[in-house]
TrEMBL record:
It comes from Lentilactobacillus farraginis DSM 18382 = JCM 14108. Coiled coil: none annotated. Pfam families: adh_short_C2. It comes from the Bacteria. PANTHER family: 3-OXOACYL-(ACYL-CARRIER-PROTEIN) REDUCTASE (AFU_ORTHOLOGUE AFUA_6G11210), NAD(P)-BINDING ROSSMANN-FOLD SUPERFAMILY PROTEIN. One of its GO terms (molecular function) is oxidoreductase activity. This is 2O-beta-hydroxysteroid dehydrogenase.
Amino acid sequence: MGKLDQKVAIITGASQGMGASHAKLFVEEDAHVVITDINADKGTQLANELGHDTVFVKQDVASENDWKHVIQTTLTKFGKLDILVNNAGISFNKSLEEITTDDYLKIFKINQLSVFLGTKYAAEAMKQNGSGSIVNISSMNGLVGGAVGYTDTKFAVRGFTKAAALQLAHFGIRVNSVHPGVISTPMIHQGDSEAVIKEFAKAIPLQRVAEPEEVSKMVLFLASDDASYSTGSEFVVDGGLTAQ
């Protein structure tokens, strides 16, 4: 029996990268998983690979109607919701002078608004169980400075997590944030960033970039009953970067 036996989870932005890693580990630990993403081709392919306990739903995480549809699909298919992993996120490699208002609003909607919407509608379903775990993927840039837009929203996710944790605690719903450092995902392998990241890795105390599975294990812990007394907290997976 796995750590998530018979639990039902929604994971956003799960067609690739960290989200796909979370989904694979959750299935290995016997969860029923609803994976969502804007990329229907990759999401459907992953769901097929993971088997009958996995369902893919195409979702724009910034759409309130899409969130209602995802929650209803989950309840119809599996009868309940135990876990939400707000994983979807984007970043732009642009300076303050270069970033446009449209860029900024897009980051806000995907990184921040989606977490609010997901938490709001997931909590309604979880209240029926009298328990639940919401894991919000922030970043080490939710603790220290980084790119404009990305840093702002990831700090907001951290703050929202604490506020939501306090409001939902008496319903038995836990809310925590995870703060990854530099992780080997498609996001950091864009354009010429790979060489930059390789050089940057030398400054990481553990001297390497993390694999997505290392973050997934932290997410699994928080999603499971092993973390039954943890809520409103941030869990850092950054190889020691923010400890310097």
